[in-house]
Amino acid sequence: MTGLQIHLSIYDDEKQLLIGLQRGDNDACTCFVKQFAPLVYTQAMRMVNDPDEAESILQTTFIKACAKIGEFEGRSGLSTWLYRIATNEALMFLRRQQTPRVSIEKVDETVQPGDMPHNLNAWPIDPAHQVLDGEIRAQLELALVELPENLRLVFILREIQELSTEETAITLGLSISAVKVRLHRARLRLRELLADYFNSEGDAQ
Amino acid sequence: MIKFDPQNTAECLDILSQMNQYVDGELAAEICHDLEQHLSECQDCQVVFDTLAKTVKLYRSLHDTPLEMPTGVEERLLKRLNLN
Q1: What is the rounded CA–CA span in Å between residue A50 and residue A58?
Q2: Predicted confidence band at A127 (pLDDT cuts at 50, 70, 90)?
Q3: What is the CA radius of gyration of chain B?
Q4: What is the pLDDT of chain B when averaged over all its residues?
Q5: Identity of the residue in B1, B55, B73 whose CB atom sits nearest the CB atom of A41
Q6: How far apart, in whole angstroms, are the C-alpha atoms of residue A165 and residue A175?
Q7: All structural domains of chain A
């Protein structure tokens, strides 16, 4: 087993992994899956909030990635490339779900009364200075799926996937100003959801 | 039903609309000065700013922290790719 592990560890290096993938080496493909599948699954799950569909998106993403690996030029990292494929698959799924379709651009592109801060208590703990424990992470994920889809998608692409405002606008077919307003609204809503959680946690301690 | 109702609502709403850019460091320097002045005098806005910045920081840390995949997902993926 030791020999095999040493052999496969060369694929920890992304350049070597890409060479292996483009050569059609099965070990490289297995390493590719083991290294990136959790990230792709997570991206899909956050976007569609449906485990079965997230798995379907994961499979389609890797099937497409493996089929097109010869065209991958390495201008971005492999994870960025995979995220892009997964994002497009997730968006296609969400578009199919929207029947009758409410035009995504008809949503008011201004901060709404429901976005306003209600909870004005300081947080008793500073989670940003703590190791992100499982419970806080679970709360972050829970709050995220409570966001309306139009706000959630912008937030995921901008804050978690770290796309620029312009890239997010192109990906979602929105104007730059719509992306900015939605990001602001999403942040305010998430702050509110987390404020309720952290304040109740502080009371409990 | 706007509940954000600190002492000086109009100014606070103005500050709130600029807070996103401030969190991202994209606000012009002269506006930053006015905003910081307001934050130093308005407890409610200070709390909103502080907790908004923490919210953003927390979520950015999720970038490289995947969820745990349910049992069988990886195995089925490898099978779909004819890798097992």
Answers
A1: 12
A2: low
A3: 21
A4: 88
A5: B73
A6: 9
A7: 2-97 (1.10.1740.10), 113-204 (1.10.10.10)
Closest CA to A150 of A191, A95, A69: A95
Inter-chain CB proximity B59 and A111 less than 8 Å: no
CA–CA separation, A55 and A60 (whole Å): 9
Domain limits, chain B: 9-63
Who wins on pLDDT, A8 or A164? A164
| Whether the Cβ atoms of residue A36 and residue A82 lie closer than 8 Å to each other | yes
Of residues A41, A114, A126, nearest to B69 (C-beta)? A41
As a residue count, chain B comes to 84
Place of tokens 């709403």: B13
Nearest to B64, CA basis, from A79, A50, A155:
A79
| DSSP state letter for A158 | I
Question: What ipTM did this prediction achieve?
Answer: 0.89
